[in-house]
Amino acid sequence: MRILLVEDEPTLRAALRRSLEDAGYVVDEADNGRDAWHLGETEPFDAVVLDLGLPQLDGLTVLQRWREAGQAMPVLILTARDGWHEKVAGIDAGADDYLTKPFHTEELLARLRALIRRAQGLGSPLLRCGPITLDTRSGRVTLGGEPITLTSHEYRLLAYLMHRPGQVVSRSELTEHLYAQDHDRDSNTIEVFVGRLRRKLPAEAIETVRGLGYRLQGGA
Amino acid sequence: MKPPGLRGALRHSLRWRLLAATLVALLIALLLAGGLLAGLFRDHVLRQFGTALTAQLDQVTARLDVDAAGQPRLDPAGLSDPRWSRPYGGLYWQVDRVSTQGAPGSQHGLRGQRGVLRSRSLWDSELQAPADAIADGTVHLHEVAGPGGARLLLAERSVRDGSAEPSAPTPADAAPAHGRPVWRLMVAADLAETEQAITRFNGTLAGSLAVLLGLLCAAAVAQVAVGLAPLRSLQRALAAVHAGQSPRLVGRFPSEVQPLIDDFNAVLDHRAQGVARARSQAGDLAHAVKTPLAVLAQAATAARTDPAAAAELPALVTQQVDLARRQVDRHLARARAAAAPGLPGSHCAIAPLLQGLLRVMERVHAERHLDLDGGDIDPAIAFAGDAQDLQEMLGNLLDNACKWARTGVAVHATTQSAADSPRLLLQVDDDGPGIAPERRAQVMARGARLDESVPGSGLGLAIVQDLAELYGGQLTLGESPLGGLRATLLLPGVRA
Which end of chain A has less neighbouring CB within 10 Å, N or C? Predict the structure, then answer.
């Protein structure tokens, strides 16, 4: 899952980045409104954490421009502006959630997980696919009730697929969502991780659709 | 400062506007009256003159006689007015002969001899009457030029020598003996004296009207000065406020401006209260935040040397930051409320504001899948105060209800018509666990949180209560028919 983190305060940005990466997300950063706007228009993100008081371009304006351009990714506003009229303005500009500073990191992560899940139309935080269960709250994966251990890359790959059960996901889509923009992307590594994941899951769980990509099988 | 021009004076000064308008109106009225009076006088005098002239014509007619030869005769001895005999005396008569051999109505027949008989006063000149067909018995009046270029009023009539009808048409220039002669009698009098009288009258009239205009202008100046005197005292009162001698406008003012004074004083009072409150709030806030800061500074110092203190530091920081945040929240909410209470004329409709807040609740509490019922709120229902303050109160109540509700939250708004001012009643219901009656007062106490398991500052209800009290309203907690808590907010409303 790839997150755009827009925050102009460097200390808070660094801390947030660490927390998000620890939670298994791939993070791109922007420290001003103009960069944020550009990144949001050109890169596919699974969610955005957006500050409002930004240099160059105000966060609300950035959000409005994204929405006008048809960018539908979930956006969580994270700001010190805590008046109710400001919350109404934020939601009406197209935000999906609103969290005021200071905040607890756990609450931010919980809200972000819920946003990503709801964006795929999934109601429960517990994702199931055949015998595989993924608890988005704890990051635990079980197979037939037995916990299995995954590396962070494997977890990200499985989580992305489990948010889209039964859908064909292309390699390039996986690359875009599992690596940050500045990362050295190589679609072969995706194949390596799929291979490793297949060894830990039932062999038929991840199906290769020739020429198109991968599909997680055994959906409900 | 540049002295204001005429346009500037008219635009900026009520006094000049009133005076200019009065002056223009007076000028128009007096000019019309003067014109009308002069016209009436002239008309009347000329009519009198004409009547007198007609009487003279009658006298002359009565003395006209025709001798055996058919020649007219007029005995001047019978005319008493000396002006008849004095050359160019101003009163003249003349008899012309009009030949009527032509068929009746034929213009060619109207030829005769001018000045058959004349008054002595005409001396060597003649009266030049315009060509005219006169029916029997009528008198015509004309203005004509007379001897020496004088302007004359001329009265004329035709007199027929009443014997036989003409037997046959004859040439136009035939002798009068061949037909029946028609005599044209005319009397004329000099208009000079009458014109002089009219001119004298007009002069007197203009003088009188000018004096009247002067008096009326003086009255207008006095009226404006008396009428606008209260504005001068208002100016003085305002200057006293500016100079800091008085906190509000003091004095007795007419009922037309009193509402303005009252509103202005309300704004001044509100500003003074706002400044006072802002000062005390800044002090309170500084004090409230300094305490956690002092605790943190001390803990940091201790942590440098004491490993046990260092281990406790993260927990301490979290706790103190939380404390400071609550204080900031509360003081911020109070500071924001500085906007509206007591400010005249502020009001906001409930329905659109509630819709905006419900949109926020739907997103922020999306995970709870709540049924949010905004009810059918009458769009006419409005709050007599600032929109942001109402948003703050209603937002906190809704947020609180959404945090605790199991399945749904409902909002109702109604107005109560009290005798003096309408009241607005807002109810926010949830189907959560509710609050036991004995703990309700505790919830609204400063910064209390009954349950740490639900995120929030724990200040929501206290902030709502603070704000409601600023508006002279109140917040009460009770039991909801839905099973949970009912928060009832009573606020000043606006009469629809």
Answer: C
